[in-house]
Design goal:
Layout: H1 6-22, E1 27-33, E2 36-45, E3 51-57, E4 78-86, H2 93-100, H3 102-106, E5 115-117, E6 128-134, E7 150-159, H4 160-169, H5 171-181
Parallel strand pairs: 4-7
Antiparallel strand pairs: 1-2, 2-3, 3-4, 5-6, 6-7
Helix pairs in contact: 4-5
Length: about 200
């Protein structure tokens, strides 16, 4: 047994944690994939700053690892994804749900520095086709029993060129290039950087 809470109990605990961090009454959508449980996307809007947070809910129901394993390792890590954009965008829900389903479908283990590349715009008209994962910005969600805590990694949108750089040099150098260029990664219309030109 993965957790004394069960899958639904884990997700309810994560949802309560997210509401405590980002505010009550998020908008909610659900995306279903063949052969996998549905992924919900919660949309939290900060009225004062105009920042919109899209957070997955469903990935953490099960520990990450080999999806074909008959008995999952109950101590394996668990995670959800958060994507932060100023002003928000339309059409992002499916892409974030696809990325959050990769542990269940492809066996990907979500962790800081990981690149998830969809190969298509994250939302209609977007220049971004992938995300790179940052360390969580909120505390982990502690679970009872042997279950590992749930980490909510921030998924930062990247362009095709930036994704290629992450594959060659790693996420840290891209983060440095953003800092040097004064890039606001929460800006859905931001320009891309090409770290290779200055190194």
């Amino acid at each position: 047994m993965d957790s004394p809470l069960g899958d639904a109990g884990v997700l309810e605990k994560v949802r309560e944690h997210l509401v405590g961090q980002f505010g009550p009454d998020p908008q909610e959508a659900s995306v279903t994939f063949l052969g996998a449980p549905p992924i919900r996307i919660l949309r939290f809007v900060d009225i004062e700053t105009g920042v919109v947070r899209y957070v997955s809910l469903g990935c953490s129901a099960n520990p990450m690892g080999d999806p074909s394993a008959l008995v999952p390792d109950p101590t394996a890590p668990r995670a959800e994804l958060s994507l932060v954009l100023r002003g928000g965008v339309d059409g992002l829900v499916r892409a974030l749900a696809v990325m959050a389903s990769t542990p269940m479908i492809e066996g990907l283990v979500l962790q800081a520095g990981a690149l998830i590349d969809l190969g298509e715009p994250l939302w209609p008209g977007a220049a971004f086709t992938a995300v790179v994962l940052r360390e969580p910005e909120i505390p982990v969600v502690e679970l009872p029993g042997e279950a590992a805590p749930v980490e909510v990694f921030r998924a930062v949108p990247v362009t095709h060129t930036e994704a290629a750089w992450v594959r060659m040099k790693g996420a840290a150098e891209l983060e440095e290039a953003w800092a040097e260029a004064g890039i606001d990664v929460s800006d859905p219309g931001r320009s891309a950087v090409n770290p290779g030109r200055s190194r």
